[in-house]
Amino acid sequence: MPGFALMPTGNQSGRTAVFPVSDYDLDGTLESGQAFRWEVRGDASEGVIGDQWVRLKMTTAGIHAEAAAPQHDWHWLEEFLQIKVNIADVLQTFPDDEPMRCAVASCRGLRLLRQQPWECLASFILSSTKQIVQIREIVRLLTERFGRRVIAPSQSGPTHAFPSAERIAACSETELRACKMGFRAPYLLKTAQMIVSDVVNLEDIRSLPLSEARERLLLFPGVGRKIADCVLLFGYGFPKAFPVDVWIMRALRELYFPQKRKVTPQRILEFSERHFGPYGGYAQQYLFHYMRTKHISNNRDKAARSAQ
User: What's the pTM?
Assistant: First the structure.
């Protein structure tokens, strides 16, 4: 979606730039379960996008970016952060109901990232039945052992690029299991081999209709509807893709079907496709983050009360 044509300011051809933004929650976006390679260090977040190490910090002037090497073009960062998306236009497409209003109010400024499809696909294959902290550990081990070292300041956060499909395809299952990924190891290995053999071309998926793109991703082992929709949303930018995991299932049941004890997953899936509009994927992320942070907050409140 076209939005603000905001240009970075500052030392744009050097190592730093500032991106003026409106209504952008950088910390919430990086920590909302979309990506797993960002480390908070002091008042900033450090990560690797492609082969670029970058440090991001929210300031009154906008998003301050510091790269490890001089930059002549910051398009890679603008694309990843989706800076030019006009979030106000997206929010206007959300259904005008109480749960959605609460989610938007609670998660103001939340954005979707645009990740590289292979890294996104591999990361979500590794996410199956794992909590975010565990996923980050698996991804960290994988990148440190098989990813190419990138230029980064000393004592920085992540310093390796995500390993290519070619590199993973050349691994043994034992090597991958050593990264604590368990039963996901053969799934990741076979997926990488399918990509290298061009059984499925990840670039071709960009031009397909949503349903066909999903079917293509479902060919990979370990990829079900939820993981496919995560990749379509966060890797390819299909705005209507609506991943349904445990958190979203709980959110939809509690927020939209509170009086009905038995609501089938199929009915919830059909409801999600019909109710949330052309940018349903954005709505999903707001509901996911709202439910997750609300649940964590409620647990903390209960723990505090029990300790009194």
Answer: 0.90
The burial class, CB within 10 Å (0-12 / 13-18 / 19+), for 17 is: buried
Amino acid at 110: L
DSSP 130: -
- What angle do the packed helices 98-106 and 246-256 form, to 10 degrees? 130
Contact 82, 112 (CB under 8 A): yes
Sorted by where each begins, the domain ranges of the chain are: 117-236
Assign a CATH topology to domain 117-236.
Endonuclease III; domain 1 (1.10.340)
253 vs 99: CA distance, rounded Å: 11
Alpha-carbon span 286 to 290, nearest angstrom: 6
For residue 151, report the phi and psi dihedrals to the nearest 5 degrees: -65, 130
* pLDDT tens digits along 35-67: 999 999 999 999 999 999 999 999 999 999 999
Residues 6+ apart with CB under 8 A from 130: 138
Task: For residues 271 and 274, give the distance between their C-alpha atoms in angstroms, rounded to a whole number.
Answer: 5
Q: How far apart are CA 237 and CA 143, in angstroms?
A: 24
Query: Which ranges of 218-275 does DSSP label H, i.e. alpha helix?
Result: 225-231, 246-256, 265-275
